[in-house]
Amino acid sequence: MDSKKWDKIATGVLYFIAGVMILILAFLLIFILWNGLPHVSWHFLTSPAKSFQSGGGIGIQLFNSFYLLILSMLISIPISIGAGIYLSEYAKKNWLTNLVRTSIDILSSLPSIVVGLFGFLVFSISAGLGFSILSGALALTVFNLPLLTRNVEESLRSISGSQREAGLALGLSKWETVLKIIIPEALPGIITGMILGAGRVFGEAAALIYTAGQSAPPLDFTNWNPFYIASPLNPLRPAETLAVHIWKINSEGIMPDASQVSAGASAVLIIAVLIFNFGARYVGNHIYRKMTGTK
Amino acid sequence: MQNYASEDRYIKELDPKKHEIALSTEDLHVFYGTSEAIHGVSLPFERFKITALIGASGSGKSTYLRSLNRMNDNIEGTRVDGKIMYRDIDINGKGVNVYEMRKHIGMVFQRPNPFSKSIYDNITFAPKRNGIKNKKVLDELVETTLKQAALWDQVKDQLDQSALALSGGQQQRLCIARAIAMKPDILLLDEPASALDPISTSTVEDTLLSLKDHYTIIIVTHNMQQAGRISDYTAFFHLGNVLEYDITSNVFQRPKIQATEDYVSGRFG
Q: Rounded to a whole number, what is the distance in Å from the CA of B164 to chain A's nearest CA?
């Protein structure tokens, strides 16, 4: 057979594979949204869950998910940026930094349930934090940090070395060059990675089951003092997140409308993750256009 | 390529009484790891003149240029031995503040590398970091440097636009403007026109000629016509040695060394 024919066959196969992928994704999305959206209402989004009766919502779980997300990003973003800058700009090529990189790669491929059990052992038991938002946030940091660090490192690395030379040749110090030239140019990539990381954290369940806990005690939304036990901001209270809630309803839910609540919560979770993903693309593109002046 | 005896050299001596020397190297060696890229080069560079460094690819001319403001410091495993004398100071010495030194010895690179900032910010970025805050002074600096780089008329109405939207030739002239905004003594240029089309090249050349009154310029070039057109002195690099250094017309019309003659007449390179 001639090469032209082969080319056509190969292209066809690639199209077919891509088509199958898209179909699976579309089927999943439509299935989840179709089943779940009818149960989503303002009441469902804002009211607390019920254990034995029908008509419960996901309000507290939704709040917990966001609070946990913010807390864990507050911890992991500064660390990952620092580590990423070090690895990309300062680390010398030797066995030690190779070891660090390999460790990060291994860490990023740890199963999340292992991270959860590690968090349970270290944060909940040894550090005495119990089932709490703080334990959960720390476990999520362990889970998310390797990927964020790698993302920061790759984003910085993708900036051409000629930009670094330009800064140095103007008499700027290395730190000034990194801080004022390289980081701003890498910002779209860094932010995109952070938002995608946020989406990943938002949908995470296994790492939280034994750290943030599986119960959502009622919250008093009138008292925002972080030291008050029922305060929404109290970082030491147990906090079941949306993803954990879905897992729990499906494994041991005894409310009459368990399947509806599960479907509705899944739909909300999927929508939130989609917003994170599209938001990442939009924000990344927007910053890039703003900085480079291209339309 | 024919083998030329590296002992066969002609290095013109510049009488310090008649020529003011802005920068000179004494027995400069550059090593990449264990291999020696520059085998002891001693050259003087006269003030307010253009000196061209020519030679085939891999002859070491860019490596030599990059050691003059110690840009090779940033490449792991590079070592530079020998003296680089600037205002009676050996700037290759240990106690030298490299960042401060680079404010006096600026550099423009082969590929235009403007920051992804506005045209205005590209020029004012480094001066601002050095404490110039007065808006009026900065505005003036932008105008004078862009005029010196022959770019002002084309961009004066779009100073707040991104530098990346400029053409390659304009970007390179912006990089020249950015370099001279630091008011350096010496300007090092590493094949500044090799990525540009002929028209942009000739604009950049005109720019350099007009800058000669205020700056000492050392330029690496692949293009022998370019060296002939703009430079006062020419150094011919061959395999990490300078085989001939003389006033430009001599190098091109009456070379004293066989290797130089073969190179400038296009027999290799």
A: 6
CB within 8 Å: B103 and A171: yes
Nearest to B116 among A92, A164, A291 (CB): A291
What pLDDT digit, counting tens, does each position of B213-262 carry?
999 999 999 888 899 999 999 999 999 999 999 999 999 999 999 999 99
Instruction: Please judge whether A166 and B111 are an interchain contact, meaning their C-beta atoms are less than 8 angstroms apart.
Output: no
The Cα-based distances of A105 to A122, A133, A246, B84 in angstroms read 21, 26, 30, 45
Q: Is the pLDDT of residue B269 over 80?
A: no
In chain B, the residue whose alpha carbon lies closest to the alpha carbon of A184 is: B116
Distances (CA, A) of A34 to A37, A275, A278, B24, B197: 6, 18, 20, 77, 59
Instruction: Tell me the C-alpha distance between A189 and A176, whole Å.
Output: 20
For residue A20, count other CB atoms closer than 10 A to its CB: 10
Highest mean pLDDT among B4-13, B68-77, B119-128: B119-128
Q: Whole-model pTM above 0.80?
A: yes
Range of the domain at B38: 10-114+186-264
Categorize the per-residue pLDDT at B150 as very low, low, confident or very high, splitting at 50, 70 and 90.
confident
- Kindly list the residues from chain A whose CB atom is less than 8 angstroms away from the CB atom of residue B183: none
> In this predicted structure, what is the pLDDT of residue A295?
46
Which residues of chain A fall short of a pLDDT of 50?
Answer: 295
Least CB-CB distance to B162: which of A92, A167, A292? A292
Instruction: Quickly count: other Cβ atoms within 10 Å of residue B214's Cβ.
Output: 14
Give residue A230's pLDDT: 79
The CATH code of the domain that includes B27 is 3.40.50.300
Q: Cα angle vertex A220, ends A217, A221, to 5°?
A: 125
Does some domain include residue B141?
A: no
- Structure tokens of B247? 């006033």
d(CA A105, CA B21): 55
Contacts for A227-233: CB closer than 8 Å, 24+ residues apart: A232/A63, A232/A67, A233/A67
The one-character DSSP state at A253 is: -
Question: What is the DSSP code string of B227-268?
Answer: HHHH-SEEEEEETTEEEEEEEHHHHHHS-SSHHHHHHHTTS-
Tell whether B153 lies on the interface with A, counting CB pairs under 8 A: no
In degrees, rounded to 5, the angle at the alpha carbon of residue B182 between the alpha carbons of residues B179 and B188 is: 40
Percentages helix, strand, coil for chain A (3-state, rounded to 5) are 75, 0, 25
CATH number, span A40-292: 1.10.3720.10
Q: Where are the domains of chain A?
A: 40-292
Check residue B133 and give its pLDDT: 92
For chain B, what is the domain count? Answer: 1
One-letter amino acid for residue B35 of the chain: S
pLDDT at residue B1 is higher than 60:
no
> What residue in A sits closest to B182 (Cα-Cα)?
A170
| B26 belongs to a structural domain | yes
B100 CA: distance to closest CA in chain A (Å)? 6
Q: Which residues of chain A are within 8 Å of residue B124 when distances are taken between CB atoms?
A: none
Query: Has residue B48 been placed in a domain?
Result: yes
What is the model's pLDDT at position B185?
94
Do residues B188 and B104 make contact, with C-beta atoms less than 8 angstroms apart?
A: no
